[in-house]
Write a structure and sequence with these properties.
Largest sheet: 5 strands, mixed
Shape: globular
Strand content: 35-45%
Number of helices: 3
Structural class: alpha+beta
Mean pLDDT: 91
Order of helices and strands: EHEHEEEHEEEE
Oligomer: single chain
Distance between the termini: 43 Å
Number of strands: 9
Length: 149
């Protein structure tokens, strides 16, 4: 019996990256766990992507609580257009993903070792959270939130 809802749950978010190894290391440092890897290709993959000759490497990274998953994708073929990895936070489209962390300063320091750079600054929002945006793999903006108080 349907209650009228269209969606039951969000399964994963896909992120296209140029360096799959670096992306896996970045998100592993953030606490995600590698769930599996595979290479996909063939007619069905072409049909889903709306492209011909797709061959891509995929890594599924699960959050420690088991509720969220990132699909990291590196296309071997066909070559895709280059995006702007420095696109500002107000550019239309998917701009950021947020992870709640226990110690934002520690996490920022650890992610910097994987090439992450702060977009702005770590700032406190009222008496609830310390927040920041930083750039991760392929220029994606990762927001970190540390609950305070």
């Amino acid at each position: 019996m349907s209650d009228g809802r269209v969606m039951a749950r969000l399964e994963h978010v896909g992120i296209v990256v140029e360096d799959l190894g670096a992306a896996k290391a970045f998100f592993t440092e953030l606490g995600l766990e590698l769930e599996g890897e595979m290479t996909v290709e063939g007619r069905v993959v072409d049909l889903i992507n709306g492209l011909d000759g797709v061959r891509s490497d995929v890594a599924m990274m699960r959050t420690p609580d088991g509720h969220g998953c990132l699909e990291l994708i590196r296309y071997q073929t066909p070559a895709g257009p280059t995006g702007d990895p420095a696109a500002p936070a107000n550019t239309p489209g998917l701009r950021h993903i947020l992870f709640e962390v226990a110690d934002i300063d520690d996490v920022v320091g650890r992610l910097r070792k994987h090439g992450a750079e702060l977009v702005g600054e770590v700032a406190q929002y009222e008496d609830s959270y310390r927040l920041c945006y930083l750039r991760g793999p392929a220029g994606i903006i990762v927001e970190l939130a540390e609950k305070v108080g």
